[in-house]
Amino acid sequence: MTRRRRISTLCPEVVFDGGTAADGPTGTTLGQATRRARSQMASEAPARTRCMTGFQGTSETIVTQRLTLTGLTAQDADEMLEVLNDERLHVFTGGRPDTLIELRDRYRRFVAGPTEPGDVWLNWIVRLTHEGAAIGTVQATVSMRSDARSVANVAWVIGTAWQGRGYAGEAARALVDWLRAHGVDDVVAHVRADHQASIAVARRSGLHPTDEHIDGERVWRLIIHA
Questions:
Q1: Residues 197, 32: contact at Cβ < 8 Å?
Q2: Which of 24, 35, 65, 105 has the most CB atoms at less than 10 Å from its CB?
Q3: Are 41 and 86 contacting, i.e. CB atoms less than 8 angstroms apart?
Q4: pLDDT tens, 65-78?
């Protein structure tokens, strides 16, 4: 899937000036309009809560130097089965690869979105730009906290055959840049202390380790808006 899908941002007054969200890690500048919008967002928490519904069920295309991130659809399950059907991808997370039926069901749930009000699921298929082949996924669950701060929990997976080439870091950094451009306040990832590859990806994405641990994983965090 290569079509570009237009979305509403967390707050439509956020202007991405000096580049597009597709610029990803190649270097994005935030212009004065964006900074003014962020200042206004800080004093308009109720409006931000209303704006957050604009994310629901949409993931616009993101383009990096080597990758194209396309919004996940239920139809992607068939192609992704070959990418994810590898026991080695579960060494750190546990479990086993999904069957085709399970993966189709999972992707249909992703597309349908969460049942919790205020939460938004965003999922992308990571593709090699020149070949169009799917090699993994990135995802973000955006939630609005009681103090009106928006927090994105992010995760990534790249198929074993494509690991070791920097694709995970490139895709994850592009995701974080996209979330930043769309007004998210904090980005969080949960990484096992012995998973050196994911630690490297978290660092490349601009996240920093904290003293928090959840279910044996360290919480990495990027505070975008203090």
A1: no
A2: 24
A3: no
A4: 999 999 999 999 99
Per-residue pLDDT of 179-205, as tens digits, reads 999 999 999 999 999 999 999 999 999
Length of the chain: 226
The residue type at 122: L
Provide φ and ψ at 48, rounded to 5°.
-65, -40
Give the integer Cα–Cα distance in Å for 12 and 47: 10
